[in-house]
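Hey, I was hoping to borrow your eyes for a little while. A protein chain has come my way and I'm curious about its shape. Take your time with it, there's no hurry, and the full record follows here:
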Amino acid sequence: MNQKLRQLSEFSINESIKRAYETDKKTVADIALEFNLSTWKVRKILRELDVRVQKGRSSTNSKLWKDIDDTELKRLYVKERLTLAEIGKRFGCDDRTVKAHLITLGVVTDESRRRFEERHPNWKKLDWDELATLYCTDELSIIKISQLKHCAPCTVRSRLRKMHVQLRGKARGNLHPHWKGGRKKDGAGYIRVYAPDHPRAYGKAYVFEHILVWENTHKQYVPEGYLIHHLNGIKDDNRPENLLALPRNGHSPTMLLKEVQRKLVKLEKEITELRRLDERTYKADDGES
């Protein structure tokens, strides 16, 4: 039932649009405002009804092209921010006529471009030569230039491309504006260090810190096919005494357990020696007193 009512409603609207265009001789812009539709939708409905849409049709109250006041037209569109259809209704002409007249006056009629210029008011104030000097001669980054000129980085980048300036590659390392020291923890809990020249560097030139610590301690690269293990299981504890290199294919929990046991025996011996040294020192202090 609702579908039938909807179809009847659409049929009556389409017939009303057809009657307004053919009988009442209204423009597409007038019909669009009357039925709260876009001019594109009105033209589509008329074509579906086999109505020939005339280009440049104007109502009986329309003004000739030369009779349209340029100042009033710009004021309505720029300051009062009326749409093309609303301006066309005031002047009694089609919205395409209004758009063509605005283009001849140098007014941006593209709404997306219009919003862009509103968000970036300094777009037209940028000195092209100064921009090229800051980027090419002073070698400032795009972000630094945007901060100096109080505009968005995309604005500076767009202007440079329009001048056919070869943009530099993306800044890396300590030259990047968001540089934080080159040390970070990944999602697995390991520490990564920025080392782009390392043979194990991958992705964004980062290497596991435990690999670098092991290599600096043993004065050699990790042998091919070996992995670095943390003896205490703490992934960000990269002290040299906590790291152990084991072959990838040959290592097993048993081998790792043996290494841990060997480490415990060594630590027990060190603790025993420290206790003996502490006892000797204590006895020496008692003898002196």
